[in-house]
Amino acid sequence: MKRLFALLALTIATPASAETIAIVNGKVATIARAEPIENGTVLIRDGRIVSVGSNVAVPANARVVDAAGGWVTPGLFAGYSHVGIVEVDAVSSTNDIQASSAPYAAAIDIAPAVNPLTTAIAVTRIEGVTRAAVMPGAGNDIFGGQGLVLSLGDGTPITRQQAFQYIVMGEDGARLAGGSRGALFARLADAFAEAAAYARNPAGYGFGRDRGSLLKKADAAALAKVVSGEVPAVVSVNRASDIVNVLALRKTYPRLRLILAGAAEGWTVADKIAAARVPVLASVAPNLPESFEALAATQSNVGRMIRAGVKVAIVPIGRDLNHQVRLIPQQAGNLVAQGKIPGGVQVSHAEALAALTRNPAEIFGLGGELGTLEPGKRADVVVWSGDPIELASAPTALFIDGRATSLESRQTKLRDRYNPLKQDTLPKQYSR
């Protein structure tokens, strides 16, 4: 059995063998350097990038892909999504985001819920997204469970299982904890203390003085990895005072690895976030607040945090987490355009691309494998018709782990099947 699990782990960690591919004549944005390489080449072999540059020798046996002057970038990395664990939001049998009546919370692992054939994966992939962090939702506790990093290619879908713990703070966390922020932080403090107790004595947990524990043993085991720093905590939080209180948790648990999600008022305490070296998963906030915990919302939130030195990954807006993750390049473009609005804080083009690729990969501990076009890294590569953050641009070729990946989805097939310009080529029964 141990041998079987070892083989499965190796399958997840290692890209499958693939052909030799040379992407030529592209404007290559490596993201490892500030400026793109004009007329560049990306050479891929066996699922890995071999070389990148303007003078790369193309082997005679390579499959050549002509970028025709278009941009070539790393695959986009969606840092916050529900892709793969929900098909229809309102149909509970297809929605595995949260478990509202489960006896467990932090111990929940969403990996068994992933459906590689869900239609949202192909819809997301054909817009250049090759990896996604998939979050559970908090159902009956502030702890939502253990999320993962998903590959949107064919084959083994999970890049990293149990990649982080999801924790809800702020207004939603207060509601789940009993109705106030005081109860919320009391719940969090108690849970972390019990997790630390479990880590000191796993066999004795739940007995003796731990008999009155509010955590099930499985939940305590999952949170023990959080307080020890083995697993990062993605903390959903928006209000500035809540952010400061979350950062203060490291005074008690110095090994705690925090990732802030949302941070609508993050710009007001950006200096504190930067000083703590805590990264942020942030969307382009609406110009008006959507809740009392986001009264200071501004579309310059991301730009101001970046200017303060915060590492930011651009993620979908809340209602787009299931089926519209593909819109993150549009959000990146909006951030670049902020500089043209009076009082707006611009995000540079290079910063926007990094926030779609390198930053999320690094935030989730995969910077050595993904996020930039550099020799040795996994070959998640997208060839674009134009600038990736322009609305008129689209992928013309896409590779995940060095494998050419289809740019078809259920929607494109339906479009082609019922295109009125092609009706004369269809069987007659389709015209009745």
TrEMBL record:
Keyword Zinc listed: no
Coiled coil: none
Species the sequence originates in: Sphingosinicella microcystinivorans
Cleaved signal peptide residues: 1-18
Region (Disordered): 411-432
Protein name per its UniProtKB record: Amidohydrolase
Alphabetical UniProt keywords: Signal
Family matches, as Pfam families: Amidohydro_1 (PF01979)
Amidohydrolase-related domain ranges (all copies): 279-397
Recorded GO MF terms: hydrolase activity, acting on carbon-nitrogen (but not peptide) bonds
